[in-house]
UniProtKB/TrEMBL annotation:
This is 4-amino-4-deoxychorismate lyase. The keyword Lyase applies. Gene3D superfamilies: 3.30.470.10, D-amino Acid Aminotransferase, subunit A, domain 2. Keywords: Lyase. One of its GO terms (biological process) is carboxylic acid biosynthetic process. Belongs to the class-IV pyridoxal-phosphate-dependent aminotransferase family. One of its GO terms (cellular component) is cytosol. InterPro entries: Aminotrans_IV, Aminotransferase-like, BCAT-like_C, BCAT-like_N, Class-IV_PLP-Dep_Aminotrnsfr. NCBIfam families: PRK07849.1-1 (NF005886), PRK07849.1-2 (NF005887).
């Protein structure tokens, strides 16, 4: 099922053409997006997602997103959704048509979550590490690379996932050229050791995770320690548990890394899920 809403509060037919062929989001990936998880009619972390949409738009010199209009579009999708209890709500903002008047293209799309992702939430995943060609400090030195922006330019991320499949895995953990852990193509990396949750810092040029932030809040209330600090691949191998977290995949356990089994974190996965769900 899909529900499509525009920023003026009107519904559109998701099976009818919406984008022009010369839309810069299509032609050049010149745009930004966010994906919100909706559970039982309630969208999670809306403020954080809209703030991140604004941050990404600013990095691309796009017009400041109108949060009130986006909330209206979100509500239209919620009011018209008749599918399952959980679905993904994608917000898309592009620069508009090439040579146009500068009016951006914007819409909110509600859609079902794939069975593959739902299965991975329960069973866990195998991942591989791949170099991303990023070094510490690059985000500050080269802002035009848009490191940390959630842009529509996902060709590299999708290529990485295809490489993972060729190697018999389902996911990727990106690393710097000198072995620091970055993030997944569509997720944040969290490692847990002796009651401490750790995730890499955004200063490395990665996207700050909304789901990771919610998980950390829940864990802190339960008395656990959380740290945002550099991680190396060796830290993942030595951890009590490694997880890829995002709005749609929630907290997904990594059971194998580069073909080597990691510590069985099944019980820890259950505990972390409880921390995350305690936020809602």
């Amino acid at each position: 099922m899909r529900v499509l809403a525009l920023l003026d509060g009107t519904l559109a037919d998701p099976d009818s053409p919406l984008l022009r062929v010369d839309d810069l989001g299509l032609m050049r990936g010149d745009g930004v997006f966010e994906t919100i998880l909706v559970v039982n009619g309630w969208p999670r972390e809306v403020d954080a997602h809209l703030d991140r949409l604004s941050r990404s738009a600013a990095m691309l010199d796009l017009p400041e997103p109108d949060h009130a209009a986006w909330r209206q579009a979100i509500q239209v999708v919620l009011d018209n959704w008749t599918g399952g209890d959980e679905f993904a709500l994608k917000l898309v903002l592009t620069r508009g048509v090439e040579g146009g008047d500068g009016t951006p293209t914007a819409f909110a799309l509600g859609m079902d979550i794939g069975e593959k992702v739902l299965r991975q939430r329960v069973e866990g995943i195998a991942a591989i590490t791949l170099e991303r060609g990023i070094e510490p400090g690059l985000a500050e030195r080269a802002p035009w690379l848009l490191l940390g922006a959630k842009s529509l330019s996902y060709a590299v991320n999708m290529a990485a996932l295809r490489e993972a499949e060729r190697r018999g895995a389902a996911e990727v953990v990106f690393t710097t050229s000198d072995g620091l852990v970055l993030e997944g193509p569509t997720s944040t990396v969290v490692a847990v050791t002796e009651g401490t949750l750790r995730t890499p810092p955004a200063t490395l040029g990665i996207l700050p995770g909304t789901t990771q932030a919610a998980l950390f809040r829940g864990a802190e209330r339960a008395g656990w320690v959380t740290k945002v600090e550099p991680l190396r691949v060796a830290d993942l191998r030595a951890a009590d548990g490694v997880f890829l977290v995002s709005s749609v995949r929630k907290i997904t356990r990594v059971h194998t890394l580069d073909g080597e089994p990691l510590t069985d974190a099944t019980a820890l996965h259950t505990e972390l899920n409880a921390f995350y769900e305690s936020e809602y």
